[in-house]
């Protein structure tokens, strides 16, 4: 039987049409299923890490987000920025901050985490966005695997700082970073200061009189002494030999009645040290805040730059994002440096100057700003400082030798 050429052509054409339709449907399905991506980019070093995390929801717009992942073990989150981050066992949960919950379809947002780690800690897995697996992972099966118990590694020598969720979200919009307003040069010397001490009246090797040595945690190898070999002025200074570890925290605390300083406190300290600020958190000065459960407001360093830290909730100024750290400055080694600060308990603001120059990253100006004081204003902050402690706390790594001299506290700026 002879088959006409016309019929064959029609049959082939019909097949092609069906195939084209299937192709179209598949393409449409692939586009509709554009999934979420979580890009985790760590910066690791011995004992710790930070990571930038990019959240890309794909074709689904978000009004809020929760990102979860798991560490294989050995990593412990100690803080974050642009998100509220917590860890339970090996599972990390990061929730959006007040200002970055909305992400358009096809858009993305970023946040960061920092933490401690043991050697050989592996890469995180199981990224999910609002409970949906990301990065092409299959959806969860009906029988989820049993939860992994927390790692059985020995406890760290220092308790990890806690980061409770903010009680008051910051305003939804924040302005771009601003430079602190210029200030007129302050007068020199200690004029009008409530406390003005160059340690020249110290007679022994152990600080006494207007100062007393305190060990807030337990007494270890940290040492405080009056030094007659190194001084900013005169022939004496306070020397702190700061060692690593919780038990070695040591301060020299003013015994003077500082109540006359009032709720707006200006400080000036001449400071010298030998070792660059470490990556992990350290403290070189602390002041008890009676309005914050008598927890310390701490000046120190992290990620190699100066920072303020609130002991009550471990908030940092600046935020420890790379951009935030870049807005602070290192503490120079091997020379005397003039550190000035202003803490305004009425307005809840903070200013810092190094050698007379205002430091943007160490400025809390009352308006939450990304990378700077966004975390600081997670809650209302109206400090009432009651003391002054000079010394050393190292919570992970870091040992240093420091000298303090010509220390002043007053109700107006004292100057260098
Ligand atoms: Ca002196």
Q: Explain this structure to me?
A:
This protein has two helices and 24 strands. With 416 residues, it is mainly beta. Strands 10, 12, 13, 15, 20, 21, 22 and 24 form an eight-stranded antiparallel beta sheet that branches. A seven-stranded antiparallel beta sheet has the order 11-14-23-16-17-18-19. A five-stranded antiparallel beta sheet has the order 5-6-3-8-9, with no helix packed on it. The longest helix has 28 residues, at 5-32. It is elongated and about 75 Å long. The structure holds calcium ion. Calcium ion is lined by residues 198-200, 231-234, 236-237, 405.
- Measure the end-to-end span: 109 Å
- Oligomeric form: single chain
Counting DSSP H or I runs of 4 or more residues, the number of helices is 2
Q: Tell me about the largest β-sheet.
A: 8 strands, antiparallel
Summarize model confidence as the mean pLDDT: 81
Number of strands: 24
Structural class: mainly beta
Kindly state the percentage of residues in helix. Answer: under 10%
Spell out the key features of this protein.
416 residues; mainly beta; eight-stranded antiparallel beta sheet; seven-stranded antiparallel beta sheet; 24 strands; elongated; disordered N terminus; binds calcium ion
Secondary structure elements and pairings:
Elements: H1 5-32, E1 37-45, E2 48-56, E3 66-70, E4 75-81, E5 83-88, E6 91-96, E7 109-117, E8 125-129, E9 132-133, E10 195-197, E11 211-214, E12 223-227, E13 237-242, E14 250-254, E15 264-273, E16 282-289, E17 295-302, E18 305-310, E19 316-317, H2 322-326, E20 337-344, E21 349-354, E22 357-358, E23 389-394, E24 400-410
Antiparallel strand pairs: 1-2, 2-7, 3-6, 3-8, 4-7, 5-6, 8-9, 10-24, 11-14, 12-13, 13-24, 14-23, 15-20, 15-24, 16-17, 16-23, 17-18, 18-19, 20-21, 21-22
This protein binds calcium ion.
